[in-house]
Amino acid sequence: SLILAFETSCDETSVAVIKDGNEILSNVVATQIKSHQRFGGVVPEVASRHHIEQITICLQQALAEAHVTYADLTGVAITYGPGLVGSLLVGITAAKAVAWAHQLPLIPVNHLAGHIYATNFVQPVHFPAVALVVSGGHTELVWMPAEGEFKIIGETRDDAAGETYDKIGRVLGINYPAGPTVDQWAHAGHETFQFPRAMIKEDNLDFSFSGLKSAFINTVHHADQVGTSLNKQDLAASFQAAVIDVLVTKTTEALAQYPAQEFILAGGVAANQGLRSALQKAVTAKGIPFVMAPRKLCGDNAAMIGAAGAMLQRHGAHADMSLNAEPGLEFEWQAAVPH
Ligand code: ATP
Ligand code: MG
Ligand code: FE
């Protein structure tokens, strides 16, 4: 198969051409980070305007880099949720236009399934599997009993892990998205602050990061008020230790409850070095193979949407011209059942 994939759910405009679900012929990513930095986060109206400006340019470039024409394609994969409605609509409209003009099947892809299938470029998924998706908007443990089946077994009750990185990074004076810099600082610092690990002892697979966020912000603000200066590297290291502790504990618990043949780490926060090594150690210690997306495919990109799209197309998933954006799309899906 040769799939043209679009991803515009948030602040990256991306178009890719993917062969057989696991080979990247092109993967063009236009990031808007600079435009959102001065606001400290993604501004939806600004995001959709950028997508409109970038989408055709990315499309042309993706086809050119892959050395393919529309006639070579076997399908068009598109993220239709979850994400920002105005942003999603730009990608959906472009994908529909190509599918309609060239009589190609339209394959609707859940953004989170895309994050998980980024690992397909490393090796095919072995089932049953458990995945941890940690990104800007989500923190979810996913049970995948068979190909095309996704069931949420644990999720955040409030903030997502990536969102928490961005918010605590902001009080440290780091530009959005703060994750990569907090990660770097954490490696240079030591865990000298004790931050809370919410829900770690509770008998469920859910997460909560808002208490950690508040504790962190209060610590920094209190120090500001009394005029002491805190070591930013140590703050970052202490914060990251708390996040990793919770993610590793809940993942280990999920693997004790579900008979996984494989564990997958995915999403933007999966680029985190500390998290990657801590989880790898904990998972392999249980004798379970650990697979993670290549670091450069952890953030949003269309290649991962093409990989998931190829799998979904094999299971007969397709959409017609009435496909709409679903900003709050649920992540419970069974490919065997018509969608
Ligand atoms: P979602 O996938 O939930 O819709 P999103 O697409 O905005 O949200 P991603 O692009 O998958 O999120 O990930 C972006 C997030 O990853 C940001 O919050 C960013 O700070 C975080 N992030 C990126 N690199 C790192 C890192 N090395 N350590 C921690 N967090 C990181
Ligand atoms: Mg992004
Ligand atoms: Fe994402």
UniProtKB/TrEMBL annotation:
Entry binding sites for Fe cation: 111, 115, 300
Compartments reported by the entry: Cytoplasm
Residues binding substrate: 133-137, 166, 179, 183, 272
Keyword Metal-binding belongs to the record: yes
Requisite cofactors: Fe(2+)
EC number of the protein: 2.3.1.234
Co-factor remark: Binds 1 Fe(2+) ion per subunit.
InterPro entries (alphabetical): ATPase_NBD (IPR043129), Gcp-like_dom (IPR000905), KAE1/TsaD (IPR017861), Peptidase_M22_CS (IPR017860), TsaD (IPR022450)
Keywords: Acyltransferase, Cytoplasm, Iron, Metal-binding, Transferase, tRNA processing
A Pfam family per the record: TsaD
Chemical reaction(s) catalysed: L-threonylcarbamoyladenylate + adenosine(37) in tRNA = N(6)-L-threonylcarbamoyladenosine(37) in tRNA + AMP + H(+)
EC top class, as a word: transferase
PROSITE patterns the UniProt entry points to: GLYCOPROTEASE
GO molecular function terms listed in the Swiss-Prot or TrEMBL record: tRNA N(6)-L-threonylcarbamoyladenine synthase activity
Biological role: Required for the formation of a threonylcarbamoyl group on adenosine at position 37 (t(6)A37) in tRNAs that read codons beginning with adenine. Is involved in the transfer of the threonylcarbamoyl moiety of threonylcarbamoyl-AMP (TC-AMP) to the N6 group of A37, together with TsaE and TsaB. TsaD likely plays a direct catalytic role in this reaction.
Family: Belongs to the KAE1 / TsaD family.
Protein name per the record: tRNA N6-adenosine threonylcarbamoyltransferase
The species this protein was found in: Fructilactobacillus myrtifloralis
Gene symbol of the encoding locus: tsaD
